[in-house]
Amino acid sequence: MEFEPFQYMRFAKRLEYADGIFMAGSGMNKPKPGVLDFKPADLSIESLCSNYGDPRNVAWLAEKYATTGEHVVMTAGSSEANFLVFASQLSAGDKVIIETPGYPQFFSLASLVGAEVLPLPRRFEDGFQPDVSELRKLLDDGVRMVVLTNLHNPSMARMPREIMVEIAEAAAKVGALVLVDEVYVDHLKPGDGDESAFSAGDNVVVTSSLTKVYGLSGLRFGWAVGPKSLASTMLDLIDVVDPELPTVTQNMAHYALENLARLRPIARRLHEQNWPVVKEWADAREDVEYFHPPGGITVWLRVKGVAETGNLATVARQDYGVLVVPGEYFQSPGWLRVGYKIEPTAVREGLARLGKAIDDFKSH
Ligand SMILES: Cc1ncc(COP(=O)(O)O)c(C=O)c1O
């Protein structure tokens, strides 16, 4: 089988074990001991008898999205949810519109199913909002799906509700589905524009998980919520790949979901503590321009005068011991994604090292 390998994931997995100050991650660290105290019953391999996931979790998600369980599919992380959406919705030769810069998994998935990608630019000048009139020009009868993230990875831009509704309406006119990966949206304060796109139209499917904001990547607990017919095809596919979802995960996730409101502010506090440190550094550098994220633990920035940030990131890692993500992985040479989920002193030190790496790189 030929498909575009997910190079960024390979890079990210390796980097996590590399030496240096780790500013490449986009997910929260695991909750500290004492924050989420699983009880022995939460670690049980016994399940409450649905092979498609714990019915309590389906019910929790159905309530969260103000819908019914028939719209909910539980998956191993949002990655599997995205995979199942692509595989259910697209066939070889179909067209799929994908935001760019965009999370590279989407491009690998499109190539896996043999779909043709039409990039939809999200530009710095527009605050990384998708341009709906540009989208309309791309939409024709061959387009089966539009793919977006909210918050936008890599910029963390928040997509306003009006734009989501307009996109859903425009896609509906040609019978296309809209996939919105919302794995970062809980970085916003509750009520501050964090409403799910699921309710923006009958043709919208959203995916998410407990990974990015909650630090529970190891649980591989994710979901998709979308149209009933799509959910049903996704379950057909689940029968092919998952005879059962991991029961321990379902039990632990049940406890985590019950405590989510308590966990959510941890990521917010980290953003509020560290963002001013990042901003101060970036403002002091005339050669750096950045998008001000409304939340999250990463910043997307452009280094003026550097066309190839891939090599810059290698210099930063090898010679200065700081790990950042080159924009090339997000179809954006010249950009870097810099994470700040570490302690403030480490953020300062990491950025100082990055600054030296930039100066060094530019002097050659
Ligand atoms: C937009 C997006 N979706 C999904 C994922 C993967 O999340 P999960 O652990 O839920 O599979 C990532 C990870 O970087 C991501 O950036």
Compact summary:
The protein is an alpha/beta fold. The chain is built from eleven helices and 13 strands. Helix content is 40%, strand content 16%.
Strand content: 15-25%
Helix proportion: 25-40%
On the 0 to 100 scale, the average pLDDT is 96
What gross morphology would you assign?
Answer: globular
Radius of gyration: 20 Å
CATH superfamily of the largest domain: Type I PLP-dependent aspartate aminotransferase-like (Major domain)
CATH architecture of the largest domain: 3-Layer(aba) Sandwich
CATH topology group of the largest domain: Aspartate Aminotransferase, domain 2
> Can you list the ligands bound to this structure?
pyridoxal-5'-phosphate
- N- to C-terminal separation? 42 Å
The number of strands is: 13
Name of the top-level CATH class of the largest domain: Alpha Beta
Q: How would you characterize the overall build of this protein?
A:
It is a single chain. By secondary structure, this protein is α/β, with parallel strands linked by helices. The protein folds into two domains: 7-30 and 264-362, Aspartate Aminotransferase, domain 1; 42-258, Aspartate Aminotransferase, domain 2 (3-Layer(aba) Sandwich). It contains eleven helices and 13 strands. It has a seven-stranded mixed beta sheet, with helices on both faces. The N and C termini lie far apart (42 Å). The model has no long low-confidence stretch (mean pLDDT 96). The site of pyridoxal-5'-phosphate has 13 residues, from helix 3. Pyridoxal-5'-phosphate is lined by residues 26, 77-79, 103, 149, 153, 181, 183, 209, 211, 217, 222.
